């Protein structure tokens, strides 16, 4: 495959993560041409230029449209705040570029639908940044479930918590604006939804209660502004398979740093995983003498692909940024026409439908079917 020309829009937390992945994917996997870091876009020229130097991009623009229009760019990484995803992704696809867009897909169902339509019309690859499905540990869980290691899944419990918005004195930012979406649903719930989709299949119905721990937050310029999004969501659901479940998300949870705690219960065993201990999973199988049964901790290693591409030693552990490197490799596989483990726009739209059904449930105080 010829070397891909990369455009990147946004260089915050996720922009840096994408840039590191594009720099690392060829040396890590050793089987693809090194992508060319062609053009970086930021909110202004000065920031764009300094970030291009830092992250290794040849050109820089304070106008993202220059990135999308650049004839040497084959793929655009979109890592800007949620409210920009739709416009940027549609422009990139219309210009004939592949797209790697951060989650959530969009802030409205109409935008997400238009994004899928643009992807289908372009014939280009359009994928979303659902990196947690790339972890060798969660991939192994998927294999264990498919192989019947815990029997038929009948119940799932997921909790996603972080504390970056736990401090009432934390300043008002874009994540508290209604323009960014509903809050914890778009910011957090979509990640567990990507994992559930891969591990146990999609949701069929939901009932949801959302909460705002703080009614207002201080403005950096002085004074305060009313918080427009919900930081907490409590969700009960039914999977399409019929299994029951719950998903609890909270981005104001003091002490929790990167928790995505999953418990999957089946007719013959259980599986546990927590992103805060991302290099291990726990398996219980109701087999053998009862006196010797218990959870086994499995540390990921070279037998859990693609761990071996990073380190030859088991149990030493991958990190969060490595998941983006794996996602970049999957994206390149997909562009080359090979099978790939990715959440593309069609599945992404299904996740968005689920999120909007959750918001409707909160408003109507009742169960909502998805679709
Ligand atoms: P951030 O605030 O750290 O970075 C956003 C960047 O976009 C900033 O550098 C900002 O200057 C730039 N930007 C804003 N408007 C722009 C414009 N018009 N043109 C060009 N650049 C512009 O935000 P973040 O935490 O990196 O989040 C970005 C996206 O990544 C969000 O959609 C978020 O949901 C997603 N995200 C995903 C994960 C994950 O695990 N996949 C983790 C964090 C964030």
TrEMBL record:
GFO/IDH/MocA-like oxidoreductase domain location: 139-271
Keywords: Oxidoreductase
Pfam families assigned: GFO_IDH_MocA, GFO_IDH_MocA_C3
A Gene Ontology molecular function term of the record: nucleotide binding
UniProt cross-references to InterPro entries, sorted A to Z: Gfo/Idh/MocA-like_OxRdtase_N, Gfo/Idh/MocA_oxidrdct_glycsds, GFO_IDH_MocA-like_dom, NAD(P)-bd_dom_sf
Domain Gfo/Idh/MocA-like oxidoreductase N-terminal: 5-130
The keyword Repeat is assigned to this record: no
Protein name: Gfo/Idh/MocA family oxidoreductase
């Amino acid at each position: 495959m010829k070397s891909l020309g990369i455009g990147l829009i946004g260089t915050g937390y996720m922009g840096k993560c994408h840039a590191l992945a594009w720099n690392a994917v060829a040396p890590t996997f050793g089987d693809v041409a090194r992508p060319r870091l062609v053009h970086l876009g930021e909110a202004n020229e000065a920031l764009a230029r300094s970030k291009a130097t830092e992250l290794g991009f040849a050109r820089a623009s304070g106008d993202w449209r220059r990135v999308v229009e650049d004839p040497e760019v084959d793929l655009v990484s979109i890592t800007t705040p949620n409210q920009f995803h739709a416009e940027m992704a549609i422009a990139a696809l219309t210009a004939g570029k592949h797209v790697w867009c951060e989650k959530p897909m969009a802030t409205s169902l109409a935008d997400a639908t238009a994004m899928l339509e643009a992807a289908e019309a372009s014939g280009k690859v359009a994928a979303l940044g659902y990196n947690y499905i790339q972890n060798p540990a969660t991939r192994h869980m998927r294999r264990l479930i498919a192989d019947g290691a815990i029997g038929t899944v009948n119940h799932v419990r997921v909790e996603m918590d972080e504390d970056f918005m736990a401090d009432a004195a934390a300043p008002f930012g874009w994540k508290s604006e209604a323009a960014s979406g509903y809050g914890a649903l778009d910011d957090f719930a979509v990640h567990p939804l990507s994992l559930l989709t891969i591990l146990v299949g999609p949701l069929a119905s939901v009932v949801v209660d959302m909460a705002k721990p703080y009614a207002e937050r201080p403005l950096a310029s002085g004074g305060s502004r009313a918080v427009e999004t919900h930081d907490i969501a409590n969700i009960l659901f039914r999977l399409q398979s019929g299994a029951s479940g719950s998903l609890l998300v909270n981005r104001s949870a003091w002490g929790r740093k990167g928790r995505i705690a999953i418990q999957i219960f089946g007719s013959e065993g259980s599986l546990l995983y927590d992103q805060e201990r991302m290099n291990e999973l726990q398996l219980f199988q109701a087999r053998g003498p009862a006196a010797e049964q218990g959870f086994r901790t499995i540390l990921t290693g070279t037998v859990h692909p693609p761990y071996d591409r990073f380190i030859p030693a088991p149990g030493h552990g991958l990190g969060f940024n490595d998941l983006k490197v794996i996602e970049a490799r999957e994206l390149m596989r997909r562009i080359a026409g090979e099978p790939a483990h990715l959440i593309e726009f069609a599945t992404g739209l299904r996740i968005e439908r689920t999120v909007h059904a959750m918001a409707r449930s909160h408003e109507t105080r009742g169960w909502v079917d998805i679709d």
